[in-house]
Structure formats: structure tokens, C-alpha cells
Amino acid sequence: MLISNLEIVPGRQVLKHLGLVQGSTVRAKHVGRDIMAGLKNIFGGELVGYTELLNESREESLGRMLEQARAVGANAVLNVRFTTSSVAQGAAELFAYGTAVILDDEA
Amino acid sequence: MEYENPEIPEGINVSREHPLKEFAVLVGGTVALILAIVLILGWLAESIATRIPFSYEQEIAGDIGHDVSDNPAQAAIERELQSLAEGLAKHMQLPPEMRIRVHYVDDDTVNAFATLGGHVIMFRGLLEKMPNENALAMVLAHEIAHVRHRDPIVSLGRGVVVGLALAAITGVSGSNLSDSVFGSAGTLTALSFSRNQERAADTSAVAAVAAHYGHVNGATAVFDLFSRLEAEHPLKPPEFMASHPNSSGRRDGIAEQADLHDWPTEGILTPLPQVLQVSE
Amino acid sequence: MIDIIIFIILLVLGYGFGRLLETSHYRSILRREQAFRGILLIATRTPPPDLIPRKIQLVAGNVVISVDYFKRFLASLRNIFGGRVQSYESLLDRARREAILRMKAEARALGADMVFNIKLETASIYKGHKNTIGAVEVLAYGTACVPHNREA
After folding, report:
1. Is A106 on the interface with C (CB under 8 A)?
2. What is the ipTM of this complex?
3. Domain spanning A2-103, CATH architecture
4. pLDDT of the residue at A106
């Protein structure tokens, strides 16, 4: 499965558009991470726990989007976008969406 | 088409000013702002509060301590304190409508205070530490002076006005961090007002004591007592964080006043009346 | 009294560690930016029609960076007087560049030499008391193009 945030794939042709596919995940940090973050908020610096959290969320939302794409029979998702939003304090939503397409075979 | 990523110079999106400089400017500005607010509003509140008629102040105060205690010993102490206070008040040029009412509280607290409506509260903790009547007179005269200077209502008015102004600012800034700065700076300025009131009350009180007894011997005993008590508490805050000036400073202030007005510092000490010789 | 002492200790700690972490972070950012200079970042939406890569793939990098106590205090004072909140400028700058560097690292692992259509997404999941920014999260993503003459 090809994922790209370009609108076209150079050298290949879109045979069929299959519409919007999306993947979303809401994750909350756990208390341990909160405590570490509280400490880090005094000293500054990277909040590694949250970075991991964001990584996991990103992968999961992409995975869910791919699952949708696979279900509609696409072999690529183009023009992918991410958005984040904070649903509640300490919970993060990561939302990925794009266009599911069928590309011609690799040249 | 050609693509290249030339190097972009550093520091375009970031100010290179030293953060400590910004810190100094901001903290200085904040402190100046608070000082201005507290001083101007405090002064305004004071001039308005002193114009409030005393009768109205009495109404606000309500019926504090009208329920004279059932305990006859306590009532006797209260009567004795009241008559001493009235004796002192004669020398203090109180306005005719201003009446002093002394209340006695059977509690260990080493304190006495004046509140709205001319009520003066004396605690057993302080009374039992009084060596003689002169020292007690100094304490009572000090509290009466507070009433005469309208300090309770001035403090109340100032507290309300300044509190509102600071709350308005911190509400704008919307952060608990700056709240704490505003809170402390406001409190410290309010405390400096309070120390000025204490000094003024001391001055009036020692004049009353001198007029009542003909000398000021014993008047400073209460400050020696406070000095001793303070020495027992090593974690005493420095003067700028306290509501009262240093006891030794107040003692010196009294000596200065006595010097200035040629009041004799020697004289016969009056013992405490039997009723007032309380102990636990 | 105790409150004030704790407050001052936090300020000093925040200032000391915050400065230390920031300078070392900037040093590492500059070093890695030099190392990844070979990968071109292009913010246009589509690659030119004459460029036919062997493979394209989405790459992303993210980071969450927190601001120290001292800088947060400065920012809260800034709220009263208005003006440039200098203490947060470097936070955002560091976060964005770090996220881009991580994205570049992913692109390098694929053997790509260009990343097209770069997007930056900034959010704040972690919010401190009364909505002061405690930390900033940046997600950088784009499409890496792997040229024909390179091995993946």
C-alpha cells in the first residue's frame, strides 16, 4: 500500500478514485507520564513519554486509515493529512485522512 | 527545474535577547505597577473610609460581644479593663460619638486588637503577661488609638479596593504564576501601610499614657515582652513581611517620643488591680 | 514564606536546567541539520512532472517539548504588559526543527533525497493550569522521493 501526501504519484496513473478514507485515535497519557511531565515542566526539555504517545497515535491512525483503504480495495492513499486536537485535558486525538485510489501497475 | 536548500541564518524566528534581562524588566514593571496601584488606591480608600461616619461603622460591626459573659469573674475583669480604657480615652480627644468597648477573651493567644465599631478585644494570654498597670495601659491606649485613627475601617476599605484591583489584573493575566507574584507584592505593600498605622498608634498611645500617669515608665515593658516572645521563635519573618514593626524599633520610637515631649521616663509603677491578676 | 522560597528555587532550577537543555538541544539541532543537508525539503504540493522517483512514501516526525518554569513565569508576566513572548519563541522553533529533523531521519533511512509537500501540525495535548502552554507538540510530515540511482 502506497501512502503519500502528494496529490499525484509521479510516473503513475490513478485508475479509480475510491473516496475519503480516515483513521482516528484518541489516546490518553497515563499517570506515570503525567508525573514525569510535571517534573519536566520545571526543567524544560523533551517530554519523551508524550513523544512516544504521539508516535503510537500516529501509527495507529495511519493503520486504521489503511484498514479502510484495504477494505474498499485501494492500493494507494493519496493527499494524506494529519490533524491533531485535544479532546480533553491529557487526551490527544490524532486524525489521518486521505483519498483512496487504485493506481496502475508499477511501470 | 532546479532544487536547492541554501542555509538559512540562525536566530530569525528567535529573539536573542538574554532571558534574565527580560525577567528584570518584567518583574520590575510588575512590582512598579502593583506599588502604584496599591499606593494610589490605598490612599483613596483611606481618605474615603475616614469620611464614613463612626455610627455607620458601629452598625457594620453589629453587636460584637454584647452577650456579657455569665462568668462573674470574667465580667469583673471586663469592667475593670473598661474603666481603665475610659480613663485613657479621656486623654485621647475621641470624637463625642466614639465609644470604646473593651471585651475580654479567656484564651491563650498573646494578643489584643481593635476592630470595627470601637470594640477592643483583650486576650487572657496577653493580660496574664502584663507586669503592671502601666504596661496594660500602653496596650489599651494603643488599641484605642487604632479606633481613633479609624484604622479598622481603613484597613477593611483598603483591603477590599486593593484586593479587587489586583484580582482584576490577575484575572487578565490568567495564570497562577503571576497570581502569586501579585499576591505577595500586594500583601507586602499592604503590610507597610499596616506598619505605619502601628507606629502612629504607638505615638498616640504613649502620649495618652504620659497624660494619664504623668510619666511613661513601664510603657515599653510590652515591647520587651514581645522581643522575648519573638526570640523564642527563630523563624520570625523579617520586618518587611510583618504586620507590625520590630519590637525593638517600637521601643526606641517610644523613647524618642518621651524625649521629644520631655515626659519623665522614671516614675512610680501602678500595680495591676487584684481582679486583673489572672493566671491559667 | 515557604511558598516564596519554593517559588524562587523552582525559578532558579527552571532557569539553570532550561538554559542548559536549550543550548545543548540547539547544538544537536545544528549538528544534525548539517548532517541531513543532503535531503532537500520542498514545500510545493507536487513534484515536477519530469521527476520520476523509484518510490514515494509518507514520512513523518514528531516531538513534544516542554517549557521550563522560569520561561513560563516570564510568559505569564508578559500577559500583563503584552508584546513579544520571547520565552516561547525558542520553544516553538526547537520543536519544529526537531520534528523536521526526525522526519528527515526517516527519509534518510528510506534512501530518499527529497521530501515534498511538507506539512507541520502543531497542537497542545498537555495543558497546564489555566491554559498556559506547558508543552508544544509538533508533527512534521511529507512525501519522501527515493531516486532510481539509490538503493533503498
Report:
1. no
2. 0.81
3. 2-Layer Sandwich (3.30)
4. 66
